[in-house]
Design a protein that fits this description.
Blueprint: H1 31-69, H2 74-91, H3 93-101, H4 110-143, H5 145-151, H6 154-178, E1 179-184, E2 187-195, H7 206-248, H8 250-289, H9 295-326, H10 328-346, H11 348-374
Antiparallel strand pairs: 1-2
Helix pairs in contact: 1-2, 1-3, 1-9, 1-10, 2-4, 2-6, 2-9, 4-5, 4-6, 4-7, 4-8, 7-8, 8-9, 9-10
């Protein structure tokens, strides 16, 4: 599950970077605050459920088509791996739905808290670095087309994809380590899934609190740099050069326009969905490491965290929609594949009966011919 931000009061879910569980965080809020928070929680449940349904079905179709119905190419390898990353993430979303619907009570145990939370960051790192690989691949294909034609292969693309998965696993592993479960301060019957950066329930010791703050900063900044700034700097650089080359060659531009638009749409969607999340994580870091942080920033986290997290969730179900609306080849394959499945499902008995009858007639005809020839 996603690492949603917030140690903010009353919003304590298993995506949170929350480490501070002091009584001072649980202040009284107005009825308007409670109603708004409840509305945001309901919105989160609806969005998570929608992302689960569309994500599992949509990415499942992409995996089916790119993995089994389309000719294996370098591009299909990239999009297959991107779909697998999104599918794995959305498959865990029912736990997020349950956790939010139960008032942020985690009933699935510590291991699933760790695994569920890690999957969101694993998906984020895998997705963004697959997009980096796609961008570099497009850059090489446009700038050095002869070299690309001689060296690009499905086998090499598969090896690069494996490297991306390993890198994503390494970068997301710390989130598995730091995730923990424990009773909520305001209600011991509610079990929270949260980040325990100090591996301790001691919030009074200055040394432990310093360690907690240091690790919180290190994790947030590392995630922001390696999960957003660095990969998107590479992506923007690649596409800047690509656009420059395409503008100089109309023929090349017309040949690359469709695939270029699809990839650009996928990258833009990823940026729009994940940028608010990373910005919110930085705001949260300021609030939870600065005792003088304003109440305005605290309210921004309380109300903004569920919105930005829901937006990031939706990214995992957006790509299949982009392929369908923008990719004619993919659209044709999906339509033909679904029609074939439906034809086989609805005409199976008729076909079997027809085939059996034909075989019997053919068999009798052959026997009769043999008998006549013997006579």
């Amino acid at each position: 599950m996603m690492e949603l931000l917030t140690e903010a009061p009353f919003y304590y879910n298993n995506f949170s970077d929350a480490t501070d569980r002091n009584e001072s965080d649980y202040t009284d809020y107005s009825m308007d605050h409670d109603k708004l928070q409840q509305s945001l929680n309901i919105m989160s449940v609806i969005v998570y459920s929608l992302a689960f349904i569309l994500g599992v079905l949509g990415n499942g179709v992409v995996i089916w088509v790119t993995g089994f119905k389309m000719k294996k190419t370098v591009n299909t390898v990239w999009f297959l791996n991107l779909a697998v990353a999104d599918f794995l993430f959305t498959a865990f979303l029912p736990m997020s739905v349950t956790y939010t619907a139960m008032g942020f009570h985690w009933p699935f145990g510590k291991f699933m808290c760790k695994l569920n939370s890690t999957m969101s960051l694993f998906n984020m790192f895998a997705s963004v670095y697959i997009l980096v690989v796609i961008s570099v691949d497009r850059y090489v294909s446009v700038v050095w087309p002869v070299w690309a034609q001689n060296h690009r292969s499905v086998c090499k693309a598969s090896c690069v994809s494996t490297g991306v998965w390993i890198l994503a696993l390494i970068l997301s592993a710390p989130y598995f380590i730091f995730k923990d479960t424990g009773p909520a301060y305001h209600n011991e019957n509610i079990i929270n899934c949260f980040n325990n950066y100090a591996f301790s329930d001691d919030y009074d010791s200055p040394a432990i609190n310093e360690l907690r703050v240091f690790r919180h900063k290190a994790m947030t900044i590392t995630r922001f740099m390696l999960g957003f700034v660095v990969p998107f700097s590479v992506i923007v650089s690649c596409y800047t050069v690509i656009i420059h080359h395409l503008s100089r060659s109309r023929t090349l531009a017309s040949q690359s326009s469709r695939s270029f638009k699809i990839i650009a749409a996928v990258i833009t969607t990823f940026f729009l969905c994940w940028a608010p999340y990373h910005i919110m994580s930085l705001i949260e870091l300021v609030v939870h490491t600065d005792d003088n942080a304003s109440d305005t920033l605290r309210h921004v986290i309380t109300y903004g965290a569920p919105i930005t997290t829901s937006l990031a969730f939706l990214n995992s179900c957006m790509n299949p929609l982009l392929y369908v609306f923008m990719g004619q080849d993919f659209k044709d394959k999906v339509r033909k594949s679904i029609l074939n499945v439906l034809e086989n499902a609805f005409q199976e008995e008729v076909s079997r009966s027809y085939t059996y009858t034909n075989s019997m007639v053919t068999s009798r005809s052959n026997n009769k011919s043999v008998s006549d020839s013997e006579v």
